Every structure is written in structure tokens, then in C-alpha cells.
Amino acid sequence: MLDDNWLAICQIDDIPVLGARLLRRANHSDIAIFRNAEDRVFAVLDRCPHKGGPLSQGIVHGERVSCPLHGWQIGLDDGCALDPDVGCAQTFAVQCDERTVYMLRSELSQPEAAENTQALAASGA
């Protein structure tokens, strides 16, 4: 059992295999919660670092998602674009207990880490 810092978001079966479920946040950008073929769950800000495309509408393959706008491949574990592209989307901590998906309460209430994640990735930060 997880402590009170974790909030139950959904059941893993609520997320389509090789797809995403959108978590809407008041006054903040949405979070895409992804599930891959191995039932691993990831949470990424629903905005591609390239042109802001909705990652939740992308195609999941392995531990990556392809942005539906321009095909950038974004790592689901770290939010970073694969070479030769540069940029990162914010990721969020996720835990699964049995079939329930949890996220950290403190992360859900925080605004996006940075508007220009491309600059952060390029600088090595």
C-alpha cells in the first residue's frame, strides 16, 4: 500500500494498451498517462517539445511515443526526444499497486517545469 502522498488516478485497464488516457488538470496543462504492451505505465505532459502536439494522440511503441504532428519520438521514461531531435517533455512519477495507477499529489499541482524544454535539453541540464 502506498502512502498518502500518492493519489489513485485510474485502473491500469482504463488505459488502452499501446495508448494513453488524458488526465485534465485545472489551471495546468494536461498529462498523458501511457500504457505499453508490457503493461508499464508512464506519465508525460501532453505537449510535444517540438511544436506542442498532443502526445496522447501519438502511437506508442516500446517505451516511446511518436508525436502525431511531426513524428518526433519521445521517450516515455525520460520525456526526451530521440536523436537527432532535441527537447524534453516533463515527466511525472507513476506507481502501480495491483491494477491501480497512482501519481504523486505534489506533482499534480505543480505547473510545468519549463516552457522552453528544448533549451534545457540542449544545454545538458
From TrEMBL:
<dbReference type="InterPro" id="IPR036922">
    <property type="entry name" value="Rieske_2Fe-2S_sf"/>
</dbReference>
<dbReference type="Pfam" id="PF00355">
    <property type="entry name" value="Rieske"/>
</dbReference>
<keyword id="KW-0411">Iron-sulfur</keyword>
<keyword id="KW-0560">Oxidoreductase</keyword>
<dbReference type="GO" id="GO:0046872">
    <property type="term" value="F:metal ion binding"/>
</dbReference>
<dbReference type="InterPro" id="IPR012748">
    <property type="entry name" value="Rieske-like_NirD"/>
</dbReference>
<keyword id="KW-0408">Iron</keyword>
<keyword id="KW-0479">Metal-binding</keyword>
<dbReference type="InterPro" id="IPR017941">
    <property type="entry name" value="Rieske_2Fe-2S"/>
</dbReference>
<keyword id="KW-0001">2Fe-2S</keyword>
<keyword id="KW-0534">Nitrate assimilation</keyword>
<dbReference type="GO" id="GO:0042128">
    <property type="term" value="P:nitrate assimilation"/>
</dbReference>
<feature type="domain" description="Rieske">
    <location>
        <begin position="6"/>
        <end position="103"/>
    </location>
</feature>
<protein>
    <submittedName>
        <fullName>Nitrite reductase</fullName>
    </submittedName>
</protein>
<dbReference type="GO" id="GO:0051537">
    <property type="term" value="F:2 iron, 2 sulfur cluster binding"/>
</dbReference>
<dbReference type="GO" id="GO:0008942">
    <property type="term" value="F:nitrite reductase [NAD(P)H] activity"/>
</dbReference>
